[in-house]
Records
---
Amino acid sequence: MQADPVDALVIGSINLDYRFKVSELPVAGVTTRAETDRVEVGGKGVNQARALKRFGVDARLVAAVGKDAEGDQAAQALVAEGIRHHLFRAVGRTGRVIITIDPRGENLLIIDPGANQWLPTEAVLEIVAEFSGPILLQMEMEKDLLERVLGRVDPARHRVFLDGGPILLSNFHLFRKTFVFSPNLGELSILFGRQILDSEDLLRAIAMLQNLGVQRTVVKLGELGAAYCVEPDAVWMIPSYAVPAVDTTGAGDCFMGVLAYGIERGQDWPTAVQLANAAAALSTTKLGVSASFPGLDETLAFQRSTPAPAPIRVLPGLHLAIKGAV
């Protein structure tokens, strides 16, 4: 089923993103007026494959769409972007996401997973068994499928980059099968059991992940950048690049794809995280995801022209405030 050799495998979601511009994000009990912005193909799986493709990685997306017009639209978009794919056609509707975006570029998302719930487990496991190389996963799929895939991967043949969104995994021993686990701050807070307010909480939460067997933790901190821990008691924060953000949708997915690119190309961790930060920052300067993800040359040019923020060693007692990062 894995017809042609590829450099990376992405198993995950594909959705139609329905985007609306609002003056402020919706709150309970208050009607929010919106202006339709656009409809485009997104989803964490597509976005990670898109990020890899823009950096020259030959990646294959494995996903499911419905037997509907939206599924046809999704397939056509992947062909137009040159993203190699194996799309399963499910009986139900294609996944949909409602995205509201405020003037600061912050967003609020509501997802109807649709066909993403019906990605056929045995067929996916067959693809995994025939593949050797990095595998990128997210949690916009059925829990059983995610856990079966993690149970099947072979650390000698696969390096798994697992995005933390949205938190789904409850079989915590399966974290040991991942090479990188990368939640954002909100997802890490769910695992930690309370909101993470400062660097002390961050250190405790990362230590908790290490106790669960996570090998390498990379926490996406939104406008604050990213924190990573690849060895015991060594947590570093790489601040983000300051850019005029207009839309943060997909920035975390862009980060994850570029991080995998950097690590798989042999970059050290500071360089790879810095590169992923730069690409994610650039992705927020344009609306949407299909047109906003940068390529390698654009990202490197941006890094050459923009001073790199200095890394911060996160130590006990630092008390660096991180409340409000997304």
---
Amino acid sequence: MNKPTHFNEEQGSAAKDRNFVTALSRGLELLRAFGAGEEYLGNAELSSRTGIPRPTVSRLTYTLKLLGYLHHNEYLEKYRLSAGVLALGYRYLSSMGIRDIARPHMQHLADATDCAIALGTADRQTMTYIEVCQGNGPLVMRLETGSRIPMATTAIGRAWLCGIPTERREQLMDEMRQRDPDNWPAIEQSIQKSLDDYARYGFCLSEGDWEREVSAVAMPLILEEGAEVMAINCGGSSLRLSHRVLVENLGPRLQELVEQIKGSLAPPHA
């Protein structure tokens, strides 16, 4: 029988406490099993590392996936940490390195446009900024890494919705409708407009939609052939970012940025 990798005497004592929740402990142990620099682990590897029986691991990973703490790659049939872990204070990006790769490209665009550039990922019905680069221009809002903003009413959130499969998007939109039925007609209209903009331009627009003083363009960052979808935006003061500037300048530049990031992520040719 394999010993749990992270088991110690303190945990053994805690397990004897009648207030100790074993199922919760096991779920957290699975999250701890992911080491820095590791992307994907399968149920067999998780079972070996934690000492938790594989059938139990399968149920736990399924539950953690539904709750947004694990991401499942169907092609590899393995899991990695997802954005929900970041919301709890875990180092979500320790297994990816996407932030280090994207940062120099983002900062270059921020300096060139005097705008704020943010890379975000979805956590249920919100977006979490995992990297932010600031320009020197007059910005109305200076959100930082770790900031959480609404998905349905922001450019970056709606861009992420544009990048995910239709079935998943419709499911999320149904959840949004149930959560906020009074405002749903306006929210649905704004999401549909973003879908239309994305089909027309290749990016989404926000002209004072979330905050009146802020305008932005955003687009999805689709990685691993769709297994992972993030989003990136470029925004600043509405006073200087007209519709024409968004469509003819910032939008195309953001598209170039996404291609640069993807190019940096691509493995070198043999």
---
Amino acid sequence: MQKERLTGVKIGVVLTGSHCTIGGVLPQIEKLKEEGALIYPIVSYTVDDTDNRFYKVADLKKFLKQVTDKPIINTIVGAEPIGPQKILDVIVVMPATGNTIAKLAAGIVDTPALMAIKAHLRNQRPVVIAISTNDALGINARNLGLLLNMKNIYFVPFRQDDPHQKANSLLANLELVMDTTLCALQGKQIQPLLLGSL
């Protein structure tokens, strides 16, 4: 029997408001759990309270509670102890919106998601980012560049998901979240980072 690769690893899974991507994120949370990880769900304000055409907030929260068996962190006050108490081994931000990326690069902390990331980074521990934004190669390109060069930040490999209709859009390959996380825990950026077109 194969040993679970993440047994006992405490993973903060941060969900931000790329609502169309959440459906692809949920199976990855289950996979992390199946590998033995202890999952701590953290949500941005938008994810916490915005019903949309892709999911209902109540259904999402029910899923997170059932799969993780941990309370959902949905306030800045709730996220702050992640730093001083050294609660997590790694944070996985999936999906990571352009808004979250921009604020993280600028040091802005005004949501539970950003507080969790900031608090965790102060412990020099890895943060994995699964990008999902329509402006990554546009106005947000400089922020992407800053984060690519930031210590303890690791990216799930990504590609242009629709280069002809949305030339600035980038989307992480969520199937690589597991492998990226395993590499990040060893202080390595998984390669290749840039993926070819679908």
---
Amino acid sequence: MKSYKYIIIGGGMTGSAAVMGIRKNDPDGSIAMFSKEPFQPYNRPPLTKGLWDGKDVESIVRPMGQYQVDLFLEKPIEQIIPDQKQVRTTGGETFGYEKLLLATGGDPIQLPGMPDGVIAYRTRVDYHLLENLVKEKDSFCIIGGGFIGSELAAALVKKQRKVSMIFPETGICGDLFPEDLSDSLVHYYQEKGVKVLKENLVDVVNKNGDQYTVQYHNIEDHQVTEAPFDVVIVGIGIKPNTALAEAAGIDVDNGIIVNETLQTNFSDIFAAGDVANFKHIPLGKRVRVEHEDNANTMGMLAGQNMSGELQTYDHFPFFYSDLFDLGYEAVGDFGKDLEIYEDWIDPFKKGTIFYLKDDKIRGVIFWNLWGKVDGGRELIRSGKSYTKADLKGMFEG
């Protein structure tokens, strides 16, 4: 049995950031990374953004070679044995560790009963598959109106393909944005050529040869419609990949539970990234965050904590998105139970959206305003009470 000082389960952004964190403290300690993907770690956001605008796919690859890592691709771990400090692969190989990081991320949610060929979009493999289909096919159905759905719809329309979006919310990104902004995005996407089928639920997808038939119904009047498509893509979020941890006796609840130093209930086992349920210190509650900034920053600290003095994870992660010529950066909490105040410089084109609870700022979206995230963090951290008059014109551009 071969042993390593550090083993990382997961070959994504979090795992690769952890390698860099380890190397800050320990230049020579042996590291193994086990990934179920066929590609070495890469940046995930370009899969729905930059790659469709002509960015070279090699540019998204993380430079792991300089860090002396034994990288095991397409070799998933099927068992963790904490009391023996070992992991076992699906092929039956066993490896020992001193410190272990779970950076297992999440798996895309797939609708039940989907036929072969329906893409639950998440990985570089999915990107290459879809890239080839775009060259051959004409009509694309995207099920989902959130981050993945909205970004992919924009990407495919830019490739002059016919795109339909089907989702149950009243507007695009309806779980995040205020209703009027979400509705304005519907009209914006329609002007760009996207067929937006909001307030609709997909009932069944059938496949006949190379063609798909999607049956869906309207939530309001229950009218059933069928439509043919060449390609069907599902982008409705992910579920944290916790089965491995749970089977090993690691505490799990909407992700792998970690303390403020990113340790699980086993002090030598850490978790980070999309899969980690952590205490968001600035917000004062436990969360799980599925965005790039959190993956990179948390992964880096996990690596440092595995290889050196334990530090508290108190970072305040942000996220961003690009939607045709529109875009935003956001930080904080965006629950629909919060009060929303919109301060538009140019309605639905540039402005700030504040999310408040008991007059305190809990979240901020900077719509086509850039470089303001630190200011948003400061507002939330301050814990001060604000009136709408206070917020008017706070961020002018």
